[in-house]
Amino acid sequence: MSRRACRALALLAILVAWREQTACAGGLNVSSGEAEESRRSDGGAPRDVPQRHRRSWVWNQFFVLEEYTGNEPLYVGKLHSDVDKGDGKVKYVLNTGDIHATKRLDREAQAYYTLSAQAVDRITNLPVEPRSEFVVKVQDINDNEPKFLDGPYLAGVPEMSPLGTMVVQVAATDADDPTYGNSARVVYSIIHGQPYFSVEPKTGVIRTALPNMDRETRDQYVLVIQAKDMVGQMGGLSGTTSVTVTLTDVNDNPPRFPHKNYQYTVQESLPVQSVVARFKAADADIGSNAEMDYRIMDGDGPGQFNITTDEDSQDGVLLLLKPLDFETKSSFSLRIEATNRNIDSSFLSLGPFSDTTSVKVTVEDVNEPPVFAAPLSRMVVPEDARVGTSIGRVSAHDPDNINSAIRYSIDRNTDLERFFNVDALSGIISTAKPLDREANSVHNLTIFAIESRKSIGRGVALVTVQDINDNAPVFAIDYETLLCENTMPGQVIQTISAVDRDEPLKGHSFSFSLAAPIAVNLNFTLRDNRDNTASILTKRGGFQRREQPVYRLPVLIRDSGTPALSSTNTLSVRVCDCDADGVALSCGAIAYTSTGLSTGALMAILGCIVTLLVMVLLIVMMRRRRKVPLILEEERDIRENIVRYDDEGGGEEDTEAFDMVTLRNLNVICDGMRQHKWRLRRQRDDYFPNDLFSRRECLFFVFFFFTFQRQGHCMISLLRNVRTHL
């Protein structure tokens, strides 16, 4: 038989004996009817009021053990009423009144049961007692072990904590009845984790059991805590949980350099703000406790270097602040200190939280390019400087110990039009082309200095072109001046100003006047306003478009340069028809209203037509008189024949009107015509007579052709004149 079954039977025997004793003593008999009857009799109830039957139920307190595992139903108790005389006339709804547990009960699931009972007459089946309720209480046994509902636990405690520092509190619960026995009384103990930690048996508080535990030695511990009921006595049930304790860091370790001396080598061409070296002081702490600052305590070359902290790695970063020069200084010695930022005063006794080391930086020589004496050379040249004029000199030297020879040249990307040259040996810059300040006032030249080892240095020559007075002033804009026909004398019709591309140091000063040919103009006058402007005024009124639609005034503008320059600008004044407010309605010449041609134009056209008709008649007549020779000797050169006609020579116009080359090649033309005639004759022999296109006919054909061409030019000129008049 199992241990649990044995405990259950033992408890059952104790309870049965205890119930029999109490039954004999009658201490638990209950007669609720008698008490009620007594109260009613004392109250003096009326006799005719029906008397209530008193209750005669008699039962003991019922208990049943949980977790009963027997094969037979477990006897719990017996119901009884004093109405029952034992003659078998009373029947109980629970059979004989005996109560048995028919299944296994669990107090943690249900602690008690409420049952209902009634006594009835067996014969009449009428109730002899009112229905009543009674309670069966399930009695607890130790069948539940303690449980850590919040486990497993994670906790932390600072390293180097004193003895007894609280880490965390654990708690276990027991489902057994805490009011009965020791089944739910739990005590705690530590199974694994000694001698570093301890636990209080009653409260479950875990504390440090050793002082000054070092995180850098061991940073995590896993504890096993046990909770046991029955006050830890033998036979009690137990449960366990794990507690992971992490030692958190404190700043108890100072920084320490792994080496007392560091050496680094850099080239002298290293750019400024470059990293020279990186080093780190070791700190066993972590997080903010390991943060540190570096500084240069002392060393040669002050201001040459700077040191900062890399916040990610806590490295010391040595930076270059000034350019290195091997020829000036080839090595530097520095003393560096590293100090913790967040120092805990509780651990100052562990020593100073800083450390120092020595750093030596060696500079290596490199082939440096030539260096200009002045990185920027400013030069000035007058605008009218002659080609070859020297304007300045650049100078560079080799910073290396070799001191190589230097040759100079101009970066032509900065002098695309090649205005300047530089002497390769001396570095003298001179003009190569005439300069124009108005086109380019400043030339930014890059000068190359090349030494024998092909390293190139670069300098800048800024050449400023000085202005000279080489531009005459002109009108500021193209003025459109309108003059109303009803303008009165002395009225300002236009204000003019001037511009000058030159830029004198004292600014521009212009003077205005009318040019000499019309200085005594009767229509207009000019007034110089002495502020680089002038006003045009009328001297009379009564202007008429029909008389003169446009007036042109030559205005003389003079600057104040040395020597002074001037220019004559023409101001066009158009006469306009204006309304009452002086707004121009129409300007310029009045158009002719007649749409017909003039008599001269008609005569010219008629003359051209007559000329063409005469030419046609001459050709017809020649065709009829082709046997009459026009030229005596057919085979002679046409250039030996003199043709006379009553027409005046036109000089260059004749040359343009006639193609002299064609006249010199008449033979070729006539031969070609005869060949063409022969080919046509072969096609149709009866179409052309045999003597068609003779040499004389050819000559007259060409002559009239060029005459017609000249008349054509006349016609074109005539049409142009007609269009102009229209």
Helix amount: 10-25%
Low-confidence stretches: 16-53, 630-645, 647-658, 684-693, 721-726
β-sheet strand percentage: 25-35%
Spatial separation of the terminal alpha carbons? 146 Å
Pfam family, one: Cadherin
Transmembrane segments: 600-620
InterPro entries: Cadherin, Cadherin-like_dom, Cadherin-like_sf, Cadherin_CS
GO molecular function: beta-catenin binding; cadherin binding; calcium ion binding
Short structural summary:
By secondary structure, the protein is an alpha+beta fold. It is built from seven helices and 40 strands. The strands form twelve sheets. Strands 33, 35, 38, 39 and 40 form a five-stranded mixed β-sheet that branches.
List the helices and strands and how they pair.
Elements: H1 3-25, H2 32-42, E1 57-59, E2 62-65, E3 74-81, E4 90-92, E5 98-101, E6 112-117, E7 119-121, E8 132-139, E9 153-158, E10 166-169, E11 187-192, E12 197-199, E13 205-208, E14 220-228, E15 238-248, E16 261-267, E17 275-279, E18 292-299, E19 305-309, E20 316-320, E21 331-340, E22 354-364, E23 371-372, E24 376-382, E25 390-393, E26 396-397, E27 406-410, E28 420-422, E29 428-431, E30 442-451, E31 456-466, E32 474-475, E33 481-484, E34 492-499, E35 511-514, E36 524-528, E37 533-538, E38 550-558, E39 566-578, E40 584-587, H3 599-624, H4 652-657, H5 660-664, H6 666-683, H7 695-725
Parallel strand pairs: 2-8, 9-15, 16-22, 24-31, 33-39
Antiparallel strand pairs: 1-3, 3-5, 4-7, 6-8, 10-13, 11-14, 12-13, 14-15, 17-20, 18-21, 19-20, 21-22, 23-26, 25-29, 27-30, 28-29, 30-31, 32-34, 34-37, 35-38, 36-37, 38-39, 39-40
Helix pairs in contact: 3-7, 6-7
